[in-house]
Structures are given as C-alpha cells and as structure tokens.
Fold this protein.
Amino acid sequence: MTRKDLEAVSILEKETFSVPWTKDGFEEALARADTLYLVAVMNSRLVGYCGFLHVLNEAYITNVAVEKNYRNLGVAERMLENLIKLGKQQGISAFTLEVRKSNKPAIRLYEKSGFVSAGIRKNFYEKPTEDAVIMWKHG
C-alpha cells in the first residue's frame, strides 16, 4: 500500500466496517516503521487490503477487507498468505487478530490460514455491539 492507494482504501474501509478507519488513520499507519500494509489489485482496480502492526516478534493484524464483488475468489486468502510470509521474513513468529463472532466466513478464512481461537473479547465491536473471537497463528 502506498499513499496513492489511500483514497480507494478509505472508500472500501467505509463500505466494509461499521466503525471505519479514516484516510488520515491509514496515512499515519503507513508512515510508521512497525506496520506493513498490502493491497490487492485486479483489472487495475484496488479490490482489497490488509495490514499489521508488529511489536518484537508478534504482529497484530489490524485490517482485512475485500470489495463485495471480489469476495469468495481467494483474494483475502492470498493477501493474508503474503502478509504472513512477509512478516515471517521480518522475524515475526506469531500473528493475532480479532474477528466478529458472527463473521463465520472470516473465521473460516482465518482457520484455513492456520489461526486458532484463543478466547473471546466481550463487547469489542460497536455498531452493533458484539463479542470478538481472538485468534492466533504461531510459527
């Protein structure tokens, strides 16, 4: 992800999440040395993005989003695979994320990518209020 992607990323973020990050929030994240963000482009169109914040040898996956018309085509799976591969090259050995408890397609994606449930974070999400499943991938 580069600054030129921020407009499309912020639009997709607003379409995907009930409490979206702002364009400025993404710009601040890109400026940090402890983050990595990727985009997926198909037919010259940004159709997805994902990223993480890392501390020592762990990474917290902050965002994974794919445009509705491009879901179920393996876009999120390939982005996540590349994000983890690049993280491992940076010395990261554990990855974590939260996902809405009701988001079964995302949970299946993360499980397919080697993440396992490690607990519940009560009332983590807003609009609507919902618990989050905490997931980890080691190795």
Q: What stands out?
A: The chain has one domain: 3-138. The chain has four helices and six strands. The first strand starts at residue 35 and ends at 42. The CA atoms of residues 82 and 93 lie 14 Å apart.
